[in-house]
Design a protein that fits this description.
It is globular, with a radius of gyration of 14 Å. The chain has one domain. With about 140 residues, it is mainly α. The chain is built from four helices and no strands.
Length: about 140
């Protein structure tokens, strides 16, 4: 299994950081970042979306948003709406899948859903490019 489909790369919000444009080392405008991101769990500071707005996640009381009694909360719902409209997938659906089937099955699904047809590596969920073989 490639590094982009490791369990430690699944963020609290349900995104697989291994498919995030920042993980591949680029900004949303397509510019190369000074430093690529290693995922939401690899850094001590809160992620850009959920952890900085959620005390339970920030304090390590939860691993995934679905573990919360407020799931899906307003912050996650807003982010989910944006992802549905802009990128064509749902973070809430990802989390419900993980909750029902487990992280291992979710990663199998991700590997198939975001598989590059040329090199079989994971494509970016944000711009649908393969940064391994440079296929769009």
């Amino acid at each position: 299994m490639s590094k982009s489909t490791e369990a430690k790369l699944v963020a609290p919000c349900g995104i697989n950081c291994g498919g995030c444009i920042a993980y591949f080392g680029y900004t949303m405008s397509g510019k190369k970042r000074k430093h690529s991101c290693d995922g939401c769990w690899s850094r001590p500071r809160p992620c850009a979306f959920i952890k900085k707005k959620c005390e339970k996640l920030a304090k390590g009381k939860l691993r995934y948003c679905f573990e919360c009694s407020d799931f899906p909360c307003e912050v996650l719902s807003i982010l989910d709406t944006r992802y549905r409209k802009t990128y064509g997938f749902s973070l809430v659906e990802n989390l419900r899948y993980i909750q029902e089937y487990g992280i291992k099955e979710f990663l199998k699904l991700e590997k198939q859903r975001w598989k590059c047809p040329i090199c079989s590596e994971m494509i970016c969920v944000h711009d649908k490019k393969c940064y391994h073989c440079k296929t769009s």
